[in-house]
Amino acid sequence: MMGFVPFPEKFVEHYRAKGYWQDQTLANTFQAVCRQYGDRIAVCDVQREVSYTELDHVATRLGLNLLDAGLVPGDIVVLQLGNVLEFVFVYLALQKIGVRPILALHTHRYRELRQFVELSGATATITADRSKDCDFIDIVNRVQADTTSIRRKFVLGDVADGFVSLGDLLAREPNRDASEIEAIQAAIDPCSPALFLLSGGTTGIPKMIPRSHNDYVCNSRLASKYTGIDEHSVLLDVLPIAHNLPLACPGLQGFMLCGAKVVLHASTRAEEVFSLIERFKVTHIHVVPALLIMWMNDPRVEAFNLDSVRVIQSGGQRLQPETRALTEHVLRNCTVQENFGMAEGLLMFVRLDDPLEVRRESVGRPVCEDDEILLLGEDDLPVPLGTPGELCCRGPYTLRGYFNAAEHNARAFTPDGFYRSGDMMRELPSGNYVVEGRKKDLINRGGEKISAEEIENLVLAHPAVTNVACVAMPDAVLGEKMCAFVILKPAAQLSLEDLVSYLQTHEIARFKLPERLELVDSFPLSTFGKVSKKDLVERVSAKLKIEAA
């Protein structure tokens, strides 16, 4: 596949020999799982539940109808659905017919969707009709008008001219025979991409992360090994399911591989979450720390029976020890499991039976013995034990290159194939790792990564702005928020409200909007003459402390 960087053959042979890669397509893997667990409930929401057998039948029917509607094996499509059962149906249906989804988030808007299509040559979109105040029908129509490859538009909900109803395709019996799917699967190379995850990156230009059939099944199997899952487990997925963590770490995929149940819900409101835990006897939950802080400090937490919860998996940012302690006090049977992961691959988990000091001080260690880790200093040489260095990694489920990004890949990977993550880490004598920050210019807002450069480029186009530097400012709940330091043109004026309104005209995801504006006459410079963002972070942090006093 053009634009795809495969694993070198010697690594392929090694991963096969070790059993990490089983040379089964993602579709065939989950078809076998569905047949194995039959009448057990695979996935549900507050209104519907679907057994493993039914899930496989629905995905087959939908896949055949999508072929009938014009999709072709090998196509790339933008899939943007929230935490609804239809996401699961579509995801598995696309795998059955050899169509590769780009997993867009429900927060992405025109700017992001257009970029995905331009980068990938996607031939179709699959979206909801709208989400709150966002009209996806209008967005998709404009994306189609402004790009050249979109041939088909599928929609869940109200159908507009030029769109095909996803509901109709789910409901009607197919005109095609299921033997077509068997033929398609037989022709798929399990080492080829099954789907594309997305990386925000530091430039704001979206980078597509190809996940092959072999590596993504491996990813979920390894993750499920360390999270205490069996066929009686129940996962509550409230984080956006297009993210790697709720989808595959172990997520939907990992729980299905174990014959367990997944409950989908789109809201993270505390009372709704508590009610679902009680109703479905939820055993596992994925969270970002901001959510956990909100839930554990909600007075209604004592009004529900939450004794079923066994594991809360926390990722996206560092979890404060106080939050972990409070959670394990309130949820008496629960272990909070810290993890570190990336859509590009590598996963580190604290083990459930690790000593308390390991759970408190680290993000654990890799889930696979063939995960190779280098911590490199500025000289690109390994740092001594205990010294922070940039995390570089390779392994059986870590990518070898972004899709269609040869120039970027030359910088993002070492000559021998280690991915340069941009995360700064320190290894403890125990073999566990501590996250020390980032080398990349990214702002981590509650687990959502914001490219400072992307927003800076947009702000610079404002007629009142001479220069801008966007930095992370500390936040007790979300970890970080974005502060924009701006130098104005002479006699110009600008408020935060004005800036946000201007940026909204560019139709970017809402989480990327600055939440504080600092007007300055000049920027502090480093010894190399660059803007010292470290000094800017210290300046806004000091102001926040004074304001909070």
Description:
Among the domains are: 25-189, Rossmann fold, CATH 3.40.50.980; 442-548, ANL, C-terminal domain (GMP Synthetase, Chain A, domain 3, 2-Layer Sandwich). Helix content is 34%, strand content 25%. It contains 19 helices and 27 strands. The strands form seven sheets. The protein has a nine-stranded mixed beta sheet with strand order 2-1-13-12-14-15-16-17-18, with helices on both faces. Helix 4 (85-96) links the parallel strand 3 and strand 4. The longest helix has 17 residues, at 52-68. It is globular.
Structural class: alpha/beta
The averaged pLDDT comes out at 93
Helix content: 25-40%
Strand order of the largest sheet: 2-1-13-12-14-15-16-17-18
CATH class of the domain at 25-189: Alpha Beta
Largest sheet geometry:
9 strands, mixed
Question: Looking at the structure, what is the overall shape?
Answer: globular
* CATH fold group of the domain at 25-189: Rossmann fold
